[in-house]
Amino acid sequence: MIKLIGILIILIGFMLKLDTIAVVLVAGIVTGLVGGLGFTEILSTLGQAFIDNRYMTIFLLTLPVIGILERNGLRERAAFLIKKIHSMTAGKVLIIYVLIREVAAALSLRLGGHVQFIRPLILPMAQGAAESKYGELNEEQIEHLKGYSASAENYGNFYGQNIFIASGGVLLIVGTLSELGIEVTPLAVSKAAIPSAIAAFLVATVQYYLLDKKLARLSTNKQTEKEVE
Amino acid sequence: MVDVLLEGIYIIAGLIGIMTAITAFKDEGHPKRIGTTIFWGLLGLIFAVGRYVDPVIIGVLLLFMGVLTATKQVTFGTLKNSTDEFREKKSIEIGNKVFIPALSIAVVAFAIAQFTSLGGLVGLGFGSVVATILALATTKTSTKYISHDGSRLLQQVGSASILPQLLAALGALFNAAGVGEVISQGISGIIPEGNILAGVIAYCAGMALFTMIMGNAFAAFAVITAGIGMPFVLSQGANPAIAGVIALVAGYCGTLMTPMAANFNIVPAAVLETKNKNRVIIAQAPVAVTLLVVNIVLMYVLAF
Question: Which residues of chain B lie closer than 8 angstroms to A80, CB-CB?
Fold first, then answer.
């Protein structure tokens, strides 16, 4: 049981909103120590795994181009385009994005990313759609829009990716089951991912439909406040 | 070949870190100039040459970087985006061509992943380089903004950008210390044997819960499938392909609800500059819970 202390440290650290990186490091070291590893062994495991997983931080490469495009009015242009389409709502922008993202993920197209797509394209589009409907948005409306826009990327990415036959998730399932003595084909696994992907799209659609209602409600509140003033 | 190219891409990523360090150092008005410089400089070095260094030294450097973030020495400086007026003017001048570089990252990455044997990561590297060149050409921007805007965004995202990688390292330590075995033994003691529905619920909920703790559904899958999936679902006659993939998806429902999945939930909140750093999780929680229930039903109905 004492080996679970790392999980406890993480839970407490996150709850107290302590520095995330320090909390993770402390949890790792303490877990290693109670697990009987030497301090040098802990440092070397930590360092080696950090090097092996550099691919997780490869989005660094996309930062300069996104920054340069933002400097040159990328978001302004996206907002301009969306303002021209009158029937579009913020919710519909996100529904369309989840659909595109899921299909792209299923085809193993990496057509997404919070830094690459949500910040420069989708959020300004959703915001532009909402602004064309409610005028200048208040802080609360923008805050909600940001959260929902980020979620569209995650829904599309997570629930679409396993439909691709050679995705990491599918290969992990095949490999893990094989170690347990069960043989399955990647094709069978990827087909089995389709019902969950459809379900995720439907649930996301309902949520974004409700987002439009929420934006309308928050907007009415703002006007009422103004009248009171 | 792929390894050489990948190492080259890590060196470029490292240069972006070093560039950020230099930019922070030159930033006279930076509130935490020295700490920020050291943090990004070390990260850049680890990316660029870390492979040739003793992992123990990397471990020590990571601890030092942890001390810097814990003492709040890594912050955003005074780098500015262009003015509102400039951006408005440029957006009219450049028009829709501004989207071409943004899309080219994905298009090039896909072309390389699909039509060569180099893989998606190398593709992403090439895509970024091509996109940067296209961006400079279409916007007629000076190359000095490669480092200015790259550093600006990286400092904005902040130290949270290394969290995914650090969590993977934590997972490695957990494995080495045998944490997974303890958890599967513990959970295995609670579930009634022979009840299919109870097994399915335990498998899916266990995946979601363990993913929330670990922040990584892949890491959870191996542990929970061996600990719960095998004895309580698969051995009762479930179709393994269906049960397996739905269990992993149930894990993703956990991913949507945990700050431990920093690259999906916390980094994006920073990237979008939300007031509440848990904003993305708050938006996702209702969908995650609904989908967890839906997937429990799907596994129960489709796998048996």
Answer: 91
